[in-house]
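User: Sequence in, structure out. Go.
Assistant: Echoing your sequence, followed by the structure tokens.
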Amino acid sequence: MSFGESDVEDAAIEWLKDLGYAYTPGPILAPDGASPERASYASVILKGRLRSALARINPHLPGDALDEVARTVLRLDSPAVEENNLAFHRLLAKGVEVQVSREDGVRGDIGCLVDFDSPDKNDWLVVNQFTVIDGKQNKRPDVIVFLNGLPVAVLELKNPQAEQATLASAWNQLQTYKNKIPALFNTNEVLVISDGSKARVGSLTAGFSRFGPWRTVDGAEPDAGQPELQVLLEGLFEKRRFLEYLKHFVIWETDDGYIKKIAGYHQFHAVRRAVQATVAASRPDGDRRIGVVWHTQGSGKSVSMAFFAGKIIVEPAMENPTLVIVTDRNDLDDQLFGQFCAAKDLIPLPEQAESREHLRELLSVPSGGVIFTTMQKFGLSPEEMTLGKSFPVLSDRRNIVVIADEAHRTQYQFGRHVDSATGRVSVGLARNLRDALPRASFIGFTGTPIEAEDRSTREVFGEDVHTYTMSEAVEDGAVVPIHYEARLAKIGLKDDDLPSIDEEFEEVTEGEEETARHKLKTKWARL
């Protein structure tokens, strides 16, 4: 029995119907169809469904305000589809600002496009063979998912029996649609491609290599026995998960063009688990050790941290927490700070602590805020060490979450050392950090492999919250495999290079004890 493109399409529709989506063939909705919901083939938004959903979701708004909400979405008219898409996502996540006339005057209000808390109040529809005509361009994508009349997902499915029908050809087809019928993508949130065997999901701006698989339905072990497309649809498009994904797991970066980043399955489930672990650890009876998120280098750890920050900030149980992001190098601090700034639609604008005094000032708020600091700001002055002083308490609030990024060396320094010559008492930076924030909870994000017998990381932060190994990342195409060739390399240094090397050495080893620094100098000089 042959298995063609239409069979893949039918299977996708059935899986979505099993999730509670209504189904209507595209020709029925067409302007000349049996039950038309479009004024023309150029119209890609089902306006009747949108208006009905808005009224159901926003009972606090009068009719004229609901009409204005609908018009705002329909007025996305920038010549660049990426600009329209960014504007729409902000409207989707934050709502549409409207002016409402009431007895006490004109007041501002918010009209929501989606009910994120009650999935069944929304209108869920899957449509196939939805013809779109733009000028002379006549295109018909395979499957479109509508949320409250808005086309938020496009699925391009290829015939598994055709040799040329590959994932790459499905991606290329989506790029053609994006160029020829751009109106369909103004409200798009995710794109799905499948060749009947494999399935991948990506964003509007993602290149083919950035489309990734969705390996698990509920975050447990990968579902290897089911078709990849079924796992992707059941794992991502389940109504409550999909709404959570749209609200908390989409980032737009606009500093250098328009780049839309959406979470991979490992990021989505890691963040969800991390939020649960944070709530548990920060309770009065919690041990303040949230755990470790170990995602291999190159798999989007910085973006995962931003997703986590954005989601924990709005977690009701955390009562508007303060986030303190700690690194042990200035370049890491700047790099991560830039990523958090780029995620400004999810996270309040972060601030970098310039000194210990500035850090104390930033922490002296009753709640809220995202603060970046290096571990070295928790060091004591020579005078304080001579006097044997402890690090002062900067804040004793319980709803402070410390996020440590790759600060393995300094995060384990709890010891106390007395210099016999000077009498100075030095205490490890990790001890100072906990003295400064005695009721804070700690989570570690790392891309460095953690050995099974290595207890340091787990003793400091707690057990693994989520892991994503190098082999998993290579299999998913998130990173490329690395092959090593054993050979000797000739190394030569010019005299002009030495000062800069010395400066870099000082920065990299900042915070290390002098004995350790001497050993490193000896080792590297020998190399």
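User: And one key feature?
Assistant: The longest strand covers residues 150-157.
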